[in-house]
Write a structure and sequence with these properties.
alpha/beta; Rossmann fold; 3 helices; 24% helix; 16% strand; globular
Length: 109
């Protein structure tokens, strides 16, 4: 996890005033206790859908299998606004614009 882009993105977003809700099925404790220790404005949650509740957007920065085929209708219900920034470009084949999402692939034009 020490080189994970998520660490840098989270720190930068917090520095710019963002409130972060974070979920990772494997590395959340490591992040909390080491890499993001002392970083303010981060709440850690216990499920991939809890992280979406009342959030302004989803920033996907991990490739765990658990995230590959989500329930997009549930995601849309949980998010305040259906916006996804996909740092792993996992959802590009799902035609999210047709499902009512604003979808941004990070690193793609």
């Amino acid at each position: 996890m020490r080189e994970a882009p998520a660490i840098y993105v989270i720190k930068e977003l917090v520095k710019r005033g963002a409130m972060i809700k974070a979920y990772d099925p494997k590395a959340v404790n490591e992040a909390k206790e080491h890499y993001l220790k002392g970083v303010q404005n981060i709440t850690y949650v216990i499920s991939k859908y809890d992280v979406l509740k009342d959030s302004d957007a989803l920033v996907l920065l991990t490739e765990w299998k658990e995230f590959r085929s989500p329930d997009f209708e549930e995601m849309k219900i949980q998010l305040k606004t259906p916006i996804i920034f996909d740092g792993r470009n996992q959802y590009n084949a799902f035609n999210l614009e047709d499902k009512g999402f604003e979808y941004h692939q990070i690193g793609k034009n």
